[in-house]
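Private note to self, pasted from the team thread so I don't lose it. Backbone tokens:
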């Protein structure tokens, strides 16, 4: 019977104890390792979570007032929020900096705040900020330009034109702005008839010779006969897309036949036969292709000469850099899908 039980002095008993200890140590170190990995992962997740969620308004208030970061760092952070389109956070930062008793450069911070309000579409608030800056520092051209833009977006052209007076006194270039605002004021004046608008816009162009695209785009749209009558042919290349897209029955062949660029343009379009060649490569190519079965036309792209921003449509004021009449038209020869479609439709009839 005693042979079934091990004596503690038996060497087999020591081996069993030894193996049991090894098993327990291995088991404990395995669970300890798993526990630590889980803990580390949780800590890292918690740390990274802070960057996924933006700080709340209260958190920002505490962080900014604690002074742990310099005001310059906060301004840089607000700027990156603005660039990424998070205007609300940028506004909160600027407002909090302006509340600090130790705030530095309040005028500059207010200007940045006004610009974010403008970008975010809070035009009335932007207006109040720029007016406040100008109340204490009336000779601040940046604030005046920004205020002019706000008035323009608010369609308060009368106030926008008034802003040009101090800018003129500071020798700022205002000619284009003045003409642009006067044309906009006329176009959006419900009390004026179309005849009054066209005659006054023509008078403005004859006086200032500014913004040919804006003037003739409107004139060709509402009264092509009058537009041809007053067309400044020296600006024809700048108006190439407007002239190209005119209806055939809206053309003035008498004027076209007296101008080389117009002759080449409408020969290339296949409306007239007045030109054999053109120094403009794309027009020359279309003139040469007109007797072939190739369906080709001109396609236009618009870029800003100031900021190089590219648009698929024409513009009078660049929405990126806010430059006026900075449009540059580029054209290229493309397949005429409209004509192709027309031919395919006709072949089914
Ligand atoms: Zn631009």
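Design output:
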């Amino acid at each position: 019977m005693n042979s079934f039980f091990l004596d503690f002095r038996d060497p087999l008993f020591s081996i069993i104890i030894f193996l049991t200890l090894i098993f327990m140590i291995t088991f404990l170190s395995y669970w300890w390792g798993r526990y630590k990995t889980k803990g580390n992962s949780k800590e890292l997740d918690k740390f990274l979570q802070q960057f996924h969620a933006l700080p709340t308004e209260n958190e920002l208030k505490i962080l900014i007032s604690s002074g742990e970061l310099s005001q310059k760092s906060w301004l840089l952070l607000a700027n990156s929020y603005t660039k990424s389109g998070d205007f609300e956070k940028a506004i909160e930062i600027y407002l909090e900096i302006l509340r600090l008793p130790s705030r530095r450069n309040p005028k500059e911070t207010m200007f940045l705040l006004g610009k974010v309000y403008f970008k975010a579409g809070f035009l009335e608030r932007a207006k109040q900020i720029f007016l406040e800056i100008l109340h204490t520092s009336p000779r601040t051209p940046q604030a005046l330009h920004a205020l002019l833009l706000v008035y323009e977006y608010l369609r308060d052209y009368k106030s926008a034109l008034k802003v040009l007076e101090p800018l003129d006194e500071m020798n700022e270039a205002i000619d284009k702005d003045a003409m642009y605002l006067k044309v906009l004021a006329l176009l959006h004046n419900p009390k004026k008839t179309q005849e009054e608008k066209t005659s006054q816009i023509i008078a403005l162009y004859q006086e200032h010779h500014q913004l040919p695209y804006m003037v003739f785009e409107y004139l060709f749209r509402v009264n092509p006969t009058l537009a041809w009558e007053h067309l400044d042919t020296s600006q024809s290349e700048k108006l190439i897309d407007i002239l190209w897209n005119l209806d055939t029955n809206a053309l003035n062949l008498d004027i076209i036949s007296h101008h080389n660029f117009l002759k080449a343009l409408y020969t290339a379009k296949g409306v007239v036969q007045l030109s054999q060649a053109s120094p403009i490569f794309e027009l020359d190519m279309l003139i040469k292709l007109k007797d072939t079965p190739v369906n080709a036309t001109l396609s236009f792209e618009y870029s800003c000469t100031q900021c190089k921003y590219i648009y698929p449509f024409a513009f009078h004021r660049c929405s990126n850099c806010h430059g006026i009449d900075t449009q540059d038209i580029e054209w290229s020869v493309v397949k005429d899908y409209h004509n192709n479609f027309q031919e395919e439709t006709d072949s089914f009839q």
